[in-house]
Amino acid sequence: MSNFLNGLMKFRRGPWEAVATVLIAIGVFMLMQPFALWLFTYSFIVTLVGTVMFIIVSHFPE
Amino acid sequence: MSDRALDRVAAATPQPVARKIKGLSDRAIAWIFVAPTIFLLLAINIFPLIWTIRLSFTNYRANRLNREPEFVGLRNYERILTDSDIWLNMQATAHFLFWTIFFQVLIGFTLAWLINKKFKGNDLWTTIIVLPMMLSPAVVGNFWKFLYQPQIGLFNYIVGFLTGKDPSSFEMLGQVDLAPWAIVIVDTWMWTPFVMLICLAGLRSIPDYIYEAAEIDRASKLRQFFTITVPMVLPFLMLAVLFRGIENFKMFDLVVQLTGGGPGSVTELTSINLKREAFEKWRTGYASAYAIILFVTVFGLASIYVKALNKVKER
Q1: ipTM (interface pTM)
Q2: What is the mean pLDDT of residues B202-207?
Q3: A-chain residues within 8 Å CB-CB of B245?
């Protein structure tokens, strides 16, 4: 856990990519889930933030 | 190597061909070759994307060319993301995506594994199995419409024969509970051979000596399957899932041909709904916002998937 947090603080690719990946996965789940309309409403912004973050952090050093 | 030897090598090295021809550098020639492709990419992919993003913030209608489009901010996005009908379309798409990929991977891998066993006539079987994916989706749609006919359809007859039900008592394309499964069955029938071919390539790339070494170590067949076959085929399988996932997310022709999105809207996938908004209701700005939402979703999913694929390959 501390490695992960250190990686985030030092702007390392691995942990930041993991954060972006989780955001995309949550966003897609929210988009297609059958449980609550409000989750669907906020799904796009979550996926968009995750995708943009993924593009940016994939240029961070390993 | 001494400096003198290096000088000799440098002097003996011929000048790049480009320098001799009209003084163009290699880099310039490379750009001349690449430029048409880059131009086409910009014109066909990048420009329409940027234009769609721009349109998604307007109330533009492509059938009213004389009317100046107005900037509406995020209103199109807001309306899409609070629309319960679109939410249902997303759920229909999720159902279609999940089950088609699940069945195609399961059956495709099993078929590849069986075909990979050397037996008489295996080339003939491969050709027969591959046939459905060579057909046009319009043909497959019509063909399955006949098979699903309650009175004369072969599918209903076989189900009736196996379960004892009256073949005309159920309608695959007309019943709300059966129609989503009807399109899953047809897509699985058509595209399982594609997954099978990719898996077969993966299976055939595994060298025999790995299995021989496992035999010497007395590994059981089951152990060999889970520790050799599955991990070595996994990158191929993931690639197949990526291709099918992207393709099925934008599935249109087959489903339109089979159900047209009905009954009601239970099989109205997002691409069908998008087409209706764009080319039947002519709400171009709204449809652009819808397309951007789908694009970001597929792009995000594909990004994480490619990352996972690279990780599996590194192993």
Answers
A1: 0.91
A2: 91
A3: none
